[in-house]
Specification:
Layout: E1 5-7, E2 14-16, H1 27-40, E3 42-45, H2 52-63, E4 86-89, H3 103-108, E5 125-134, E6 142-146, H4 147-152, H5 156-162, E7 166-169, H6 171-177, H7 184-188, E8 193-196, E9 198-200, E10 207-209, E11 215-218, H8 223-237, E12 243-246, E13 253-257, E14 261-265, E15 276-283
Parallel strand pairs: 2-3
Antiparallel strand pairs: 1-2, 3-13, 4-15, 5-13, 5-15, 6-12, 6-14, 7-8, 7-11, 9-10
Length: 289
């Protein structure tokens, strides 16, 4: 019997049937998961007790090339000793809660903006895999928005206008919105990248908006008009009918397609409650035969 999926939202997102991803390595099962990603864009796997090395190994088996040039890496070394393993937590090196004015905490607040992982790099992020280690006793959810459904809901004239447009993505831009400042040396490492505003799934051909808080301006358009266009599209793309909200349980692994979705973390009292998750993101390169 093949892997089963239970839909969680009218447009996208599904919970996968019982499976231990640590032991998945055969081509048939990996292809089933990839097909599920093509259809649902967000997959929830329960009861996945990954060790850090197991999560990295699964991500490599699933999609090949790992993203290790993270924006956070310019602030300092990963507390895990591997830049491909992103620390999505409110903890310092000793496991204590970050202080309110700690640069790492202020930088991490950018995760509460709607974004796609590593869109400020070329190649950008493709699949992200987030593993829940410690979940607070209060709501600390993550929301996902289906950029395919948002694109398809636009009228034909608007879709035609968007085709061929290119957008510059910069993590410095998104953090600047929050008042976060990078040094000149840090900015030198964060040049940003240019990507199409409309992208297509390479297997299914289904088209989607490619938006993020990192999207700074539309190339070849006057800056004010381009930024207004991006703002209007963002407002459209995160309407309630396009959004799934995930409530975390310890052991959850959620995989999402960054070319088809945006996401954001919801606010919680991070000065009181410990929250610890690990993310691995793969790059959008053709490594799967």
């Amino acid at each position: 019997m093949g892997l089963t999926f239970r839909k969680l939202h009218p447009h996208f997102a599904a919970e996968a049937g019982a499976i231990d991803l640590r032991r998945v390595g055969d081509r048939a099962t990996l292809d089933e998961i990839r097909a599920g990603m093509d259809e649902y864009a967000v997959l929830v796997f329960r009861d996945q007790p990954f060790a850090d090395d197991e999560q990295l190994q699964f991500a490599t088996r699933f999609d090949g090339t790992l993203h290790a040039k993270t924006g956070a890496s310019v602030l300092g070394k990963s507390r895990f000793g591997n830049e491909a393993l992103t620390d999505i937590s409110n903890l310092d090196e000793g496991g204590g809660l970050l202080k309110a004015d700690d640069r790492r905490r202020v930088y991490g607040l950018g995760n509460r903006l709607w974004h796609t992982d590593a869109s400020f790099q070329d190649p950008p992020g493709r699949y992200s895999m987030l593993s829940a280690k410690v979940v607070p006793p209060v709501a600390a959810d993550t929301e996902f928005a289906d950029m395919r459904a948002a694109y398809e809901a636009l009228d034909a004239e608007t879709r035609g206008t968007l085709e061929g447009l290119r957008v510059h993505h910069s993590i410095a831009y998104s953090r600047h919105v929050l008042g976060f400042e990078f040094s000149a040396q840090e900015l030198e490492k964060l040049k940003g990248a240019v990507h199409p505003l409309v992208r297509a799934n390479p297997r299914s051909g289904r088209r989607s908006l490619y938006l993020a808080s990192h999207a700074s301006h539309v190339l070849d358009w006057p800056v004010p008009e381009g930024r207004l266009l991006l703002r209007e599209l963002m407002e459209h793309a995160v309407l309630p009918q396009f959004v799934y909200r995930h409530s975390w349980r310890v052991g959850d692994l959620v995989i999402w397609d960054n070319l088809a979705t945006m996401h954001r973390g919801r606010r919680f009292d991070d000065a009181t409650h410990r929250r610890e998750l690990r993310r691995v993101t793969t790059l959008d390169v053709d490594t799967i035969c």
